[in-house]
Amino acid sequence: MTGPSGTGAAPSGRITRGTTGRNRLRRSDRWTAHHPDVAAALSDPRPLAVDVGYGARPDTTLEWAGWLRRVRPEVRVVGLEIDPARVVPGRDGVEFARGGFELAGLRPDLIRAFNVLRQYDEDEVADAWATMTARLAPGGRLIEGTCDELGRRCCWVLLGSGGPISLTLAWAPGHTDRPSELAERLPKALIHRNVPGERIHSLLARADECWDHAAGFAPYGNRVRWRAAARLLEQRTGVPAVPNRRDNVLTVPWDTVAPA
């Protein structure tokens, strides 16, 4: 089966478990719809967004399209899956095709690959990133990340053609006791780096310290407590505190967490 571009190139990557669920990527979707880098990437007259490895059902791709249309109603969205049995007919203005990291020959302005590289080895990440970012249109962006089964804890890396730009941690305020609990959902590039001496370990430890110091705000709820903790983290580390109405969110420059 050829990709949307008609190249007929063999898909790059491996078939994943395909686990998915409705509304699973809502935290990343909300962040994506409000991030200035994403808006800039989608600035072409008819931008293209590609969702890599959407799984056994296309639910999250269809939801992503709805969020992206809030930014750019003209956006064209394509979902790709390596397993031909998972490729479904297009619907709701979204196309589906067979493809992997080679993006079926497309040159998108925005790529998303969620819960895909988690099933790869750490030493395979750099090549996968490079393969996808090489296909980006000028100024394009890649969002690569991981979340739990219900989407309550999510982590993702934002990348451009030059490599990683930032790491974002996002979690449901009522279902996470400490920021460091996000460690189990770190992207593959970082999940094995949460050990003393690594930057991601230091960041999570400092976030926990600030969370503990903000305990006095606990009666007002975990959202208010995290806002106070994030302000303290900003004072101590220089990491900007970015309030979010619904989620607890921490976004840091990549060099803050890059493997030592």
From TrEMBL:
Which stretches does the entry tag as region Disordered? 1-30
Q: Please note every region of biased composition (Low complexity).
A: 13-22
Per the record, the domain of life is Bacteria
What the entry lists under InterPro entries is as follows: SAM-dependent_MTases_sf (IPR029063)
Protein known as? Methyltransferase domain-containing protein
Protein's organism: Tsukamurella soli
